[in-house]
Amino acid sequence: MRQTITKSDKNLKILNKLIVNGFYTGYIGPEKFELMPKRFPNNHRLIGIINENGNYDLKFDFKPPMNIAGKILIGLGILTIIVSLIKGNWILPIALTIFGLLFFADFKLKEKKEINLLTDKMLEFHKSEYE
Fold first, then answer.
1. Which of 11, 14, 84, 109 is the Cys-Cys partner for 125 at CB 3.0 to 4.6 Å?
2. How far apart are CA 66 and CA 108, in angstroms?
3. What pTM value is reported for the model?
């Protein structure tokens, strides 16, 4: 299930406050926003894209140099696994598969953590407006 943020003036103001207060860097446009955390390591970004219901679908991705390198490494890993299996070597494909699954699990945990941090910060700003 994809997490969404309702597109409203209040939420757009809160997203802008997150940037102004130094929690994130990035931009907010009419159809899309992109936020990058202002802490170390900050090689990830949160992207919100308008869906057919008028809400922002949240995506988590690497920043541009890292996402290209990640895709190249995935391709090289698959190619290495195929060549190793053709040559009869089973140890390298098993090791690369385990490493890839660990990397994927770590990425998914970071995605969940970062989206939860964003929604928590947004809830803090929502609560502070009503106090």
1. 14
2. 16
3. 0.81
How does strand 55-62 pair with strand 32-37?
unpaired
Residue-wise pLDDT tens digits, 64-94: 888 899 899 999 999 999 999 999 999 999 9
Residue 33 confidence class, pLDDT cut points 50, 70, 90:
very high
Beta bridge partners of 23: none
Burial 109-120 (b: 16+ CB within 10 A, else e): eebeebbeebee
Pairing assessment for the beta strands 55-62 and 24-28 based on DSSP bridges:
unpaired
For 58, phi then psi, to 5°, come to -90, 130
Q: Got the DSSP string for 60-87? A: EEE-HHHHHHHHHHHHHHHHHHHHHHHH
CA 114, distance to chain mean position in Å, is 7
Percentages of the chain per state (helix, strand, coil), in multiples of 5? 60, 20, 20
- How many other C-beta atoms lie within 10 A of the C-beta of residue 28? 17
| Averaged pLDDT score across all residues of the chain | 89
Q: Are strands 4-6 and 55-62 parallel, antiparallel or unpaired?
A: antiparallel
